[in-house]
Amino acid sequence: MALASSLGIQVREESGPEQSIPRAPTAITAFVGRTLRGPLDRPVRLRSFAEFTKEFGGLWQPSPLGYAVEQFFDNGGREAYVVRVANGARSATLALPTQDAPDVATPGVATPLRLAARRPGTREFLRACVDYDNIPTADRDGFNLTVQRVRSHGTEHVEDQEIFRAVSLREDADQPLSQALQESELVQLVGPIPTSRPRCTLDATSGCAVGYVNSGSDGDDGAPLTDYDLIGSSARGTGLFALEQIEQFNFLCLPPLSREQDVGPSALLVAARYCKERRSLLVVDPPADWHNADDAIRGMRSWDIASENALMYFPRILAHDKLRGRFESFAPCGAVAGMLARSDESWPVWSAAEGEEPVLRPGFRPSVTVSDERRMRLAALGVNTLLATRSSGILASPRTLAAGSAASADWKYLSARRLALFIINSIERGTRWVVFTPAVPDIATQVQRQITEFLEALNEEGAFLGRAEGDAYYLICDERLNPPERAAQGFNILVGFAALRPGEFHSFIISHSVTGSKVKTASLNRLTSSHYHPLPGEDLDPQQLSWVDQLAGRFSA
Question: Which residues on adjacent β-strands are paired with residue 116?
Fold first, then answer.
C-alpha cells in the first residue's frame, strides 16, 4: 500500500527513515503472450494457475503461454503477472432494440443500442437487459442497464456483473450512458447512438419477466502473434510495455508465438533492453531446432544476444499436455522461472553458485540428456542445462547470456547479477521516502545509517563472502552529492559493492525526485577500497576527493 505518491514516485508504508530497508522480491515473473480471453495490454496479478484459468480461460492449444504459466506454478512459482496481447482480435457485440424511429438507411428498422465487449475474442460471453424500475413515468429517457459476463451462453453462471442505474442516451442528462460506460470493464458503446431509449427486455418465453439479450457470434480470436505484437508500443503502453503499469517484476517470459514459431530476435533484443531498464532478467527459450547439445553449441556461435540481463536454459522440457492427453515438448521459460523461484525459498540469490543446482520437479524432464562435458561447454557460452535430478558430476554455476562477452564479463554469473539487481532494487525502493521528507540537516545521516544496516546484514549472511566492510561495499550520500543549494532537485545516493572480487566495486548512482527514481551505472568499477574509505580517524584528502567531486558534478546536475 502506498504511503505517499507524487507524479512518478510512490513510497510504501514499510519504508521510511525509521524503518529498515525492506528486501525486494526476487522471483515475480511476468508473462506476455496470447490467451483465450482476458483484458488486453493490462498486467493481471496471479498466485495460482486456477486464477489464470478464471481470468484468461486456461490452456489453449494454439498458444504456449497457458502451458508456460501452468509449468511456472507447477515448478514452485508463487507470483506472476500476465499480459494478454492479440493480433487482429475482434470483440463480440450485442444489440438492444430501442423505441427509435425507423432507421433512414434501413426503412422500417429502428436503430438499436449497440454495445461491444471490452475484451475481444470468441470466449467473451455477455448478455444485457434493460428495465425501467424506479424510473419516473414522466421520464421518457431514463432506463437501467445490467450487463453480465456468463461462463457460456445458455447458462446462469454469472462471472461478473455491472449495473448502471437511471442512465440516459442524452449527453445533457444527469447520468449519460456514454460517461457511465467509460468505467465499464465489460462493454463500450459502438455505432450510432439512438435518439430514444432501449426497450425493456422481456423474457422470450413468458413475455413478462425481464430477460436478456446475448452477445452475438461476431467475436474473433485473431491471428497468431508476431514479434511486433509482443513488443507493442512504449507510447501506448501495449505489448511488453504494458508492464510499466506494475512496480516490479524479476523475470520476463515470452513464450513462443505458437506451437511451431519461436519468438524472433527483434522481440528478444527489445525485451532484453527493457529488462535492463527495469532491472530484471529475460528468460530466453532455446530455439526449437536445437535438438541436442551439439546443435546448441553450434547455434551459440551465431547468437546475437549477449546480455547480462538475459539467461537461457537448455534443452526444452517434456511435460504432460492435458488437452492432448500425452507428453509434449515445451519451451522451458515458465518451468525455469518457477524452478528458480522455488530455489530462492531455500537459498538466497547470491548462493546459487555454491548451493545445490535447481532441478525440475517430478513430472517434468529434459527432452534430451546432456553429458557433463557438454554442460561445461554450454556454460562457457552462457547456456545453462536443465536437470531432472541432482547431478553427481561437476557443479556448473548458472550463467547469464553475458558469458563469453568481454563487454559484460563481470556479470557472466547469474548469482552475481541477481545479487546486484536485488541490492539496487531494495535500496532504490527503500529510500524513496527522502522525496517526501523535509530537507533537514541529518537526512544524509539517516540514509547512510539505513543503507549501511541493510548492506551489513547482507554481508553477515555471506552475500559478499564475509569480506570486511571496506572490501565489501561503500556508500556516499553527503553534501558532495547533495549540496544544500540543490536540495529541491532531489537526492542522490552513490553505492558500490563487490559482487565478485574483494575491493573491486560495481558502482551505481540512485537519484530520487518527485518525478520518479532513476538508477545509473557509475563508471568507477575498479577503484580500490582506499579511494572510498579513509583510515580510522582520517579524512579523505583533496586528491581522494577529486573523483567524488567530478561524479557529483555529473549526476547531481
Answer: 93, 188
Cα–Cα distance measured from residue 82 to residue 44, given in angstroms and rounded to the nearest whole number: 5
- CATH number where 323 lies: 3.40.50.11780
Parallel, antiparallel, or unpaired for β 29-33 and 80-84?
A: parallel
Domain for residue 134, yes or no? yes
Burial 241-253 (b: 16+ CB within 10 A, else e): bbbeebebbbbbb
Three cell numbers, residue 395: 557443479
Task: Give the number of residues written for the chain.
Answer: 557
- Within 279-350, residue ranges assigned H as helices are 293-300, 333-344
The string of DSSP codes covering 415-450 is HHHHHHHHHHHHHHHHTGGGGGS---TTHHHHHHHH
State pTM to two decimals: 0.89
What are residue 517's DSSP bridge partners? Answer: 512
239-278 pLDDT, tens digit each: 999 999 999 999 999 999 999 999 999 999 999 999 999 9
Domain with 251 in it = 25-87+223-415
H or E, element range at 51: helix 49-56
397 φ, ψ (degrees, to nearest 5): -65, 130
C-alpha to C-alpha distance for 208 and 18, rounded to whole angstroms: 66
Cα separation of 243 and 425, whole Å? Answer: 16
285 shares a domain with 149:
no
Q: Is the pLDDT of residue 9 over 60?
A: no
How many C-beta atoms lie closer than 10 Å to residue 533's C-beta?
A: 18
Residue 408 CB neighbours (<10 A): 18
Residue carrying the nine cell digits 584528502: 541
Same-domain check for residues 391 and 361? yes
Please count the other Cβ atoms lying within 10 Å of the Cβ belonging to residue 393: 10
Handedness of CA 130, 135, 141, 144 (dihedral sign): negative
Report which listed range, 331-335, 454-458, 536-540, is most confident.
331-335
CA distance 433 to 435: 5
- Does residue 42 fall inside a structural domain? yes
Q: Count structural domains, the chain.
A: 3
Residues 99 and 83 in one domain: no
Per-residue pLDDT of 295-308, as tens digits, reads 999 999 999 889 99
- Same domain assignment for residues 187 and 277: no
134 with 236, same domain? no
Single out the residue in 194, 214, 234 at which a domain terminates: 214
What are phi and psi for residue 420, nearest 5 degrees?
Answer: -60, -45
Distances in Å between the Cα of 109 and the Cα atoms of 129, 352, 545 are 20, 70, 83
What's the CA gap between 146 and 164, in Å, rounded? 6
